[in-house]
């Protein structure tokens, strides 16, 4: 991994306060915002700063990495690339890899720098390449493809799904929390579906870590979490800690129709890596797919 950080003299620092950051990253809860500021470095390059809360230490938490990537893309898109705040972003691809020997420091906040390079891939689409650095050392890389659409177009696209009865639908009973590497049933996003390798997605909107505020479709963060939990069930009891994640999104996941999570361990390739392929099926077709890789 390598960084393309420019000299400090080329940077134009930005910080507009936590309220502006919440607006840019589409979050309502202050504690959910990981970013602390950003800088423009010219030539489509930016530096974002982030802070992870103190944790027990160990491998990177996939959701923390995903949120850092997501928030970095959004703040650059809205604050620097003229993507209107009222427009809806459509995630098409989110891939990342982590340094296999990196461990998060124990019981102390982690300050990160995110090196961001953006390029337009269409009139309303963008590719973002990111490098995550801790203490100057590259510890992760990511590629994200997304587009955005105007409010009127989004309303037509969503149709009857634009308005949902938030929190009123039934939530199926979860699988045992320990089987998905979680301590509490409220953190489990999988429900039994009658056979190995298949579960129903649980959309418990009371989990504020995954559902920061009411939305009209299941957030992408929930889908990454579902993939991680499915991989843990199939490969447990050893903790499955992904060092590579690739994901693609074909359509939104709706709240009012069951979404089935299907997963399988990929035959070993002899490289000391365990891979799990996960798909989300709704309306009888694949809506998203995630492949996770962890060192054996």
Automatic annotation (TrEMBL):
Lineage, broadest ranks: Bacteria, Bacillati, Actinomycetota, Actinomycetes, Kitasatosporales
Name of the featured protein: Gamma-butyrolactone biosynthesis protein ScbA
Stretches assigned to the A-factor biosynthesis hotdog domain: 24-144, 180-272
Annotated source species: Streptomyces enissocaesilis
Pfam family, one: AfsA
Superkingdom of this protein's organism: Bacteria
InterPro entries (alphabetical): AfsA-like, AfsA_hotdog_dom
């Amino acid at each position: 991994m390598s960084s393309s950080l420019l000299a400090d003299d080329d940077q134009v620092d930005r910080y507009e306060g936590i309220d502006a950051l919440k607006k840019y990253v589409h979050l309502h809860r202050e504690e959910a915002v990981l970013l602390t500021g950003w800088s423009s470095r010219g030539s489509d390059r930016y530096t974002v700063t982030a802070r992870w809360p103190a944790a027990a230490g160990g491998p990177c938490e996939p959701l923390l990495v995903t949120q850092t990537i997501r928030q970095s893309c959004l703040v650059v898109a809205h604050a620097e690339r003229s993507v209107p705040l009222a427009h809806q972003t459509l995630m098409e691809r989110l891939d990342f890899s982590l340094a296999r020997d990196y461990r998060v420091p124990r019981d102390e906040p982690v300050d990160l720098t995110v090196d961001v390079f953006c390029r337009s891939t269409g009139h309303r689409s963008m590719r973002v390449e990111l490098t995550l650095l801790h203490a100057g050392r590259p510890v992760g890389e990511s590629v994200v493809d997304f587009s955005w659409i105007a409010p009127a177009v989004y309303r037509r696209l969503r149709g009857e799904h634009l308005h949902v009865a938030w929190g009123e639908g039934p939530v199926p009973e979860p699988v045992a929390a320990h089987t998905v590497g979680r301590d509490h049933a409220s953190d489990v996003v999988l429900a039994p579906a009658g056979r190995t390798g298949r579960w129903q997605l649980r959309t418990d909107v009371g989990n504020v870590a995954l559902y920061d505020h009411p939305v009209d479709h299941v957030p992408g963060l929930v889908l990454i979490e579902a993939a991680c939990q499915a991989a843990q069930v199939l490969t447990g009891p050893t903790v499955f800690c992904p060092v590579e994640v690739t994901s693609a999104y074909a359509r939104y996941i709706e709240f009012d129709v069951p979404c089935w999570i299907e997963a399988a361990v990929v035959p070993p390739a002899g490289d000391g890596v365990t891979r799990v392929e996960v798909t989300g099926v709704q309306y009888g077709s694949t809506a998203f797919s995630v492949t996770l890789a962890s060192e054996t």
